[in-house]
């Protein structure tokens, strides 16, 4: 089983359909990622990864932390990069979805 203690402490499942894989070691610009069963999609690039395998993912600063959405998942995101007060929030959200099996 590739999901050993080394990997388990370096990638983070958020629920069952979202996974974060930050680079945690100083000077590193790649991270080894094990994807649980199913198809996973990088929410930034749309690249597809097959579950049950380990991949090396490039992540150089200032790139965002790699986030992966499992097939069938939905993620709502609101851009808060320029928000300093709650009244500046608006109701505009980004919706990330992964394709259904018949779309892929």
List keywords for this structure.
two-stranded antiparallel ribbon, 104 residues, five-stranded antiparallel sheet, 1 helix, mainly beta, 4% helix
3D structure, described in words:
The chain has 104 residues and is mainly beta. 4% of the residues lie in helices and 36% in strands. The protein has one helix at residues 5-8, and strands at 12-14, 18-20, 30-35, 39-42, 48-50, 53-58, 67-70, 74-77, 94-97. The protein has a five-stranded antiparallel β-sheet, with no helix packed on it. The mean pLDDT is 80.
Query: Using DSSP, what is the number of strands?
Result: 9
Rough shape? globular
Q: Mean of the pLDDT scores?
A: 80
Order of helices and strands: HEEEEEEEEE
């Amino acid at each position: 089983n590739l999901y050993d203690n080394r990997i388990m402490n370096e990638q983070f499942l958020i629920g069952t359909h979202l996974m974060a894989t930050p680079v945690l070691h100083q000077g590193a610009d790649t991270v080894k990622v094990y994807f649980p069963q199913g198809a996973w999609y990088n929410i930034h690039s749309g690249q597809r990864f097959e579950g049950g395998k380990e991949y090396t993912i490039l992540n150089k600063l200032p790139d965002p932390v790699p986030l992966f959405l499992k097939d069938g998942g939905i993620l709502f995101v609101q851009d808060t990069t320029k928000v300093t007060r709650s009244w500046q929030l608006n109701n505009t959200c980004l919706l990330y979805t992964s394709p259904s099996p018949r779309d892929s």
